[in-house]
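Supplementary notes for students who missed Thursday's class. We covered one full example, reproduced here. Read the sequence, then the structure, then the short commentary at the end.
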Amino acid sequence: MLNRLFGFNRRTFSSLSEQEVLALAISSEEDDARIYRAYADGLRDDFPHSAAMFEEMAAEEDQHRASLISLHRKRFGERIPLIRREHVRGYYQRRPDWLVRPLGLDEVRAQAVIMEEEAHRFYLEAAKRTSDAATRKLLGDLAAAEQTHESLAAHLAERHLGGEARQEEDRTERRQFILTYVQPGLAGLMDGSVSTLAPIFAAAFATGNTWQTFLVGLAASIGAGISMGFTEVASDDGVISGRGSPVKRGVVTGLMTTAGGLGHALPYLIPHFWTATTIAIVIVFVELWIIAYIQNRYMETPWSRATFQVVLGGALVFAAGMLIGNA
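Structure (token representation):
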């Protein structure tokens, strides 16, 4: 366990022979090609232009691997030692594509640049460790190729992601973000902020007890969050609607519903009734304007309509709670 944790069972890069350095380069190029193809597979349905870019980068890695294998065959024969990144202490690591899903365009593009920068540094160091002219030349050429891969990614982006294509994919990514996170979160925040107004303020004015009011608000917020979360999960599996993972939507909805209710329940931890109530009312006002802003910013709802719907609805529910509490 300690050996794995601290890398005691790994080789240092300086201890590798020239054959092992070539073997490490071969396995690294193979892994990078697989990662690029996994990115392409993950992006193909929604972002075909970016998928084509990563397919071409994977093909470039295949060419590098073929050149390295050809050189190894000439110098050391057919048997390539089994040595991979995880066998070398301090060697750069790659994140499997399933750890970065769902694949965001900006994230995978940035990851591709990092991958090429790390490969460039590796080939520079590897070239220093060989005395064979052909090997040094190939490693130097690959270092230069990896360095230009950053510009290759840019060139491929220009080729496959022209202005219209990039805008189209950016719009698709924004739409997916809205469907999976913003819409469910907004629904939860609205439900948590508005639906809990009546019970919380009814309890406040009926009892005049801040602690009891807080308990009512806590129960209402958590209960609403659980209910809304499970409802969102059960309502749509996301396959036909394209709204994304139901679990993610359910978690977002549940958390935002709970947060919306707790926002004006937490002030009742303050023992003084009118101080707690005043702060709670201010928080309600802020919550309602945040909801209106999100509707305007992401749902493209006009300010006038968003304000009318949210503020008027919240005011009516708040008034109902006060009337019931004072009855």
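Commentary. The CA atoms of residues 194 and 314 lie 6 Å apart. DSSP finds eleven helices and no strands in the chain. If anything here is unclear, bring it to office hours.
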